[in-house]
Amino acid sequence: MRLDSTGRALGAPPDLAGKWLAALGRSFRVPAGHREEIVDREGALDMLRCGTGTLEALLGAGLPHAGPPGAELFDRYDLFNLALASGSGRSVPERSIEFALRWMNTEPESWFRPMDWHFTVDLSCPLPGGCASEPQWRLARPMPEMFGGSTLGLAVSPEDTTPDGAWITAGGTEGLSVSGRIRTRGRPGTLRSPVIRGIVEEFLAARYTWARMPEALQCEDTRVLGLGFAPCISANLHLERRFREAGFEAATRRGWILGMLDLAHAWVEVVDEDGVTRPIDPIFVLLSAYARAPHPRFVQACRGSAINRLLPTGLPAGTSLAAHRCGGTDRAPVRRTVIRRAAGPPASEGGER
């Protein structure tokens, strides 16, 4: 194998190089107006693990980028989607998702039992010199209670910040930090209405491809789905509309997938013909294709069951989980999210502090 001056392989084996080039033609590319090209060449190689020769071939074949030759900059979503489509088995996104989805292989009982988690979310200003005047911060309040879970402890900084409805809000230039311990629970369920089931099956039969992209673009659901891709916000805005057109009460919900790269997520909840509100998560169905061996009952569980890997909030799809404003301008805050399984015996039930 030929190596460059840093010891990195110059190219992937010919069969893998062909996979990468084929993947480029079918992976989602973020359109102009939504692109953020901030990943440098070294970062791209670290993520893709395709070798410099293959990266050069991808550039020649039209991989979007900015910057001069040798100092290219890439959009992180473009790289993620390309890696997932490659089938190389070597890239960071492929390996990370396979590892993160291993729980889909387990017995159904494990999807519903109580699970304890530690979480920390830190928000900071993206301005290099810090906040401008009159800074304001907002973070969606975790609400595990919506699925039968509980908040075992919640700490916020600044200390005078308190949860208020669906949001945790703060002022000041030091940002916003929220940490605590939560308990999630699942709830098995089955869709009763043949009309609701039909709408879901029609959506899944379209064989959309899951892709990551900016939230603002996901909100253009007709545009995105028309291209054959289904991120969570787009998919569930579409299903919400279809359920309402069929005469059912439905609403999307925003939250996080726990233990899977701590991804922001969305799903839809519909009032079934028996009056019970049931969650539907079409994206979990699409994601299960990346699990090594998902349990045969998992896909069905996504039609009407609440899964203990979901952490709900009180917000609908299309609403960002975090917001910041300073100097009279709305700015996307820098987010650092860490959510991990709590070690040791389950904590006792308790309230916020």
Task: Identify the notable features of this structure and list them briefly.
353 residues, alpha+beta, Immunoglobulin-like, 4-stranded antiparallel beta sheet, 27% helix, 24% strand, disordered N terminus
Number of helices: 11
Helix content: 25-40%
Stretches where pLDDT falls below 50 for ≥5 residues? 1-10
Percent in strands: 15-25%
Structural class: alpha+beta
Radius of gyration: 21 Å
Explain this structure:
This protein has 353 residues and is α+β, with helices and mostly antiparallel strands. The chain folds into three domains: 14-96, no CATH class; 114-186 and 321-341, Immunoglobulin-like (Sandwich), CATH 2.60.40; 194-312, no CATH class. The protein has helices at 14-26, 41-48, 52-60, 76-86, 92-100, 194-205, 215-218, 221-226, 232-245, 282-287, 298-301, and strands spanning 37-40, 73-75, 115-124, 136-140, 150-157, 163-164, 167-171, 176-184, 250-257, 264-271, 277-280, 310-312, 322-326, 329-331, 334-341. Strands 6-7-4-13-14 form a five-stranded antiparallel sheet, with no helix packed on it. A four-stranded antiparallel sheet has the order 5-8-3-15, with no helix packed on it. It has a four-stranded antiparallel sheet with strand order 11-10-9-12, with helices on one face. A hairpin with a 2-residue loop joins strand 13 and strand 14. Helix 1 crosses helix 4 (76-86). 40% of the residues are buried. Mean pLDDT is 91; it is low at 1-10.
Compact summary:
27% of the residues lie in helices and 24% in strands. It has 353 residues and is an alpha+beta fold.
